[in-house]
Each structure stands twice: as C-alpha cells, then as structure tokens.
Amino acid sequence: MKTDLRATLLRGLAIGMLGVWSLGPILLIVLSSFRPERDIFSPARRFNLDVTLDNYTQLFATFPQFLPNMGNSLIVALGATALAVTTSTLAGYVYSRQRGRLLAASAFFAILVRLVPPIVVSLPLFPIADALKLSDTHILLIVLYSAFWVSMLSVMMKVFIDQIPPTLDEAARVDGASTTQTFLRIILPLATAGMIAGGIFVFVYAWNEYLFAFIFSSTRAVTAPLIVSNIMDSVAGTQWGVLFAAATLQLAPVIALVIFFQKFLVAGLMAGSVKG
Amino acid sequence: MGIAAQRRRFGGLLMLAPMQLQLILVLALPSLYVLWLSFTESSYGAAPEFVGWANYAAILSDPTFWRSLVNTLIVVNIVVYVEIILSIGVALLFQSVKRGRGVLMAMILAPYAVSEVVAVLAWRFMLEPDIGILTGLFSALGYVPNWATNPIEALVLVSMIGVWLHLPFSFLLIYAALIAIPADLGEAARVDGARPWQRFRLVTLPLLMPAILIAIIFRYIFGFRIFSEVWLLTQGGPARTTEVMAVYLYKNAFRYNEFGMAAATGWLMVLGALLLASFYVYHVYRSGFRNED
Lengths: 276, 293
Fold this sequence. Notes:
The complex is a heterodimer of chains A (276) and B (293). With 276 residues, chain A is mainly alpha-helical. Chain A has one domain: MetI-like (MetI-like fold, Orthogonal Bundle), CATH 1.10.3720. Chain A is 79% helix and 0% strand. In chain A, helix 4 packs across helix 8. The longest helix of chain A has 32 residues. In chain B, strand 1 and strand 2 form a beta hairpin. Chain B has a single domain, classed as MetI-like fold (Orthogonal Bundle), CATH 1.10.3720.10. In chain B, helix 1 crosses helix 12, helix 8 runs antiparallel to helix 9 and helix 11 runs antiparallel to helix 12. Chain B contains twelve helices and two strands; from the N terminus they run αββααααααααααα. The relative contact order of chain B is 0.12. Chain B has a two-stranded antiparallel ribbon with strand order 1-2. The chains are: A mainly alpha (276), B mainly alpha (293). Chains A and B meet through helix 1, helix 4, helix 5, helix 6 and helix 7 of A and helix 1, helix 3, helix 4, helix 5 and helix 7 of B.
C-alpha cells in the first residue's frame, strides 16, 4: 500500500511537470495577451489579474494587414492540404494495389528526394519563381508545401488503403466499374480516416511554416507566421502585449484543430512510421 | 499481360503522376541544379561560370563555415538525445496512466501545433532580461542568463526550443513501439522477481531499441536542417557566432550574393542527410535478415 501511494504521488508529480513544460509557454502567451502592458512589464505585478482587450485593438490599429495575412495563411494551408491529400491518395491507391519494379523505384525515389533540406531547393527556386512571376503568390507556397508532404502521405495512404480488402475492388470490377469508378466509389469513402490524418499534418505544417514564407513572400502572400515575426522584430521589448495578441491569434485555430483531431493524428503517424 | 491488365497498369501510372511530378519539379530537378551551381561562380541575375571545386575549397577554408558546422552539431546532439530520453520517459508515463488519457495526450501533443515563430517568442519572453520568468528563477539560483550575448546559451536555448517543438513527434514514434510490446513479457519478468528498473533495462529497452534508433536517425536528418529557430532568435549573431549550416547557406546566398558557395554548402547538407539515411537503410536491412533466421 505504501509503495502504491508513493508511485501515485510520483506519477502525479511527473504529470504536473509535463503539464508545465508542454502548456506553460503556450498559456504564458495566451494569458499575457489579455493583460495590460504595464503588468506584462513589471515582475512585481506578475499576479495582477486585470483583463483587457487593449492589446487586440492596438494590434488591429497598428498592423491592419494582420487579418488579411491570416487569410493568406488559410488560403495557402487549405490549398496545400487539398493538393497533397488528393495526389497522395491517388498514389497510395496505386502503391497498395499494384506491384512492379517501376512502382518500387517510384516509392524509393519519393523517399530519397525527401532527404533534400528545404533551404537547398530555395536556392534555384528563388530566381525561377521570379522569372515565372510566381514570387510572392499563394500558388507557389501551396505547391512547395504540398511537395514536401506527398512522400510521407503516399506511404501513409498506402498503409491505410492496404486495410481495405482488395476483394471489394475486384467485386466492383466484375460488376463493370472502371478503375476511376472503383477508386471514387469504393476506396475514397473507406480511406477518409487516413485522408483526414494526412490533411491535418499538411495543414498544421503549412499554417505554421516560416522558411519558405520568409524567402518567397514580401507583400501579397505574407502569411501569419511571417507577420508575427515582423511584429516581433519591430516591437519586441517595447510592446509585448500587441505581439502576444498576434501570436495568440496565429496559434488558436491550429491548436484547436490538433486537439480536436488528435485521434487521427496519432493513427496517421503510427501508420506512417510503420513503413516510413 | 491482357489488354485490361495493361490498361489498369497505365491507369496506375497516370494516377501516380501528379505526386511524382511535384517531387520532380520542386525537389529533384532543383537539387540537381544546385549540384551544378555548386561548381559555378554565379550571383543572382548573372550568368554562371564553371569553376570546378573552388566553391567547396572556399567554404572549407572559411572559419565561419566550420563554426556553423560545430554549432549545428552541438544543437543537433542536444536536441536528439534530450528529446529521445524525454520521449521514453513520457511514453512510459503515458502507458502507466489509466484514466484521463485523452486529456494527457492533448497536453503532450499541444506544442506540435505551435509555430516556430510563436515558440521562439514564448521562450524568448521567459528568458528576457529583467522581466522573464526563467530569468528570475535562474537569477534567484545565482546565475544571470543572457542568450543575447553568450553564444553557448543561445545555442542551448535554440536546442530547448527544438526539443519543445518536436517532443510530440518523437514521443509518438516511441509510444507506438512501446504498445507493440506484449504485456505478458513484462509480467513474466515480474513473476521471476525482476524489479521495475531491471524490467525496463532488460525487457522493455531492448525491445524499444529499433524504434529508438529510427527516431534518432529521423531527428538527426531533420535536426541538421534547423533554420527558423536560430534565425528568429539571433539571426546567427552576435558576430556570426551562432550560425548553423542553413543560416550560413542563407546568408551566403541572399545576403552576400555567393550562390556558388551557398550551393556547395547545400550539397554538403544533402550528402550528410544521405549518409545518415544510409545508416537507417543498413539497419532496416540487417534487422530484416535477423528476423528471417
């Protein structure tokens, strides 16, 4: 009994520490965004509980581009998610149902090129995007973000589609359905869990991505992380409140998404790690 | 092959094409182009000129490159090992908890949703001179931290931000392997009188080892690319002392207009990733054979 109690206490302590580690930095930002500037700056007023929306009104007054930039993030994240999930589900279906040297080579290639660091491809893509008038556009970010996920998503979709019995495809084929029809009517409805899991990975990545946004976007396609970093450069140390308000707005939608869909995320990563 | 089978095969390749095309256009061709660039002298807008190994010689004799390599190795090694040890601990803790797992999982996964920008902001604020919570804590213990002037502290802070952001990923890899271990193995060890630490060291850990190795290699490959955390925190300063390889590459390309040197750095990074991945392939290959006998 005595050791049981001690084990329970130790476990409680460990969970408490884990909570502080995981949620502490997030709560600090969110809670601070609702505090008056003078309280944020003064350690003596650390436990003052005044609540205000001043930081948010100040944010929209000083940085009117903030909401349009959040909109850019939404467009880019949804676009990348749609592109990556569609193309990877098609590929995952082929990987699952067909065999051959060409397919093995294609899967190997998909994993091999994924080893290239993003900063490396930005070198040649920068002048090329410029020449094609694609710099500072949504479509460029959409294609870049999607391309960096299709390798893992295709493997993941293969694992998910492997669980759909091939006898279902065959039955459809015997009934005279074409490959396209089989794919649309049989596979897609049964593969939605995998598609949601993959979609969340891409959405979170695209919503938060900094490097490509920083290199390729200057005005029209500025995304939320980029405007937050611009605000950080201009006001950190002087107007923390405004900065925390911006960070909270950038953070909130995606944290809600991750918590809401956590089961899909866990299932997706486990399917990806089996073979990936 | 019948006509129907041949048509299915062709249809399959057609369905594969959009995914392959993205990889070829965004990843494969650009990296081959970078390989060629690394043997040329060029800057943005000017025609490249072949210079052989000169760019590689230039970066290998540049002390800033070596500094950035050492910094990268420091950060990557802290990140990988701290993260793996924490992941094992958190996975064991999670497995031992019977009630409230949904809440606990949400808590563990939360940092996965946070962008590098916001993570840097949060940690920077906690360590801000005078007003930071952690600054206050360390000062009370007799040490005044200052990442803005001390490069080692800045690199440690970058590493902590990296661990904080990616722990959910490593945790899930390790946890997936942990729940795959049959429960009766631990039970049998307990019946035989093994103490908890012995059970962990002699039963659980050896069975987790393949997953741990995979997680380590994964995190090495992705850790080597680290850019945003460093750029957002220090931009490589003060005086280029906290640059990592990706920051060194970025500055050469976009600040000093040395595309050739940047390309050579890029290819060294690609080769590093290939080398790490070959460890992984070798490991999979060996364990594949071991399972067969």
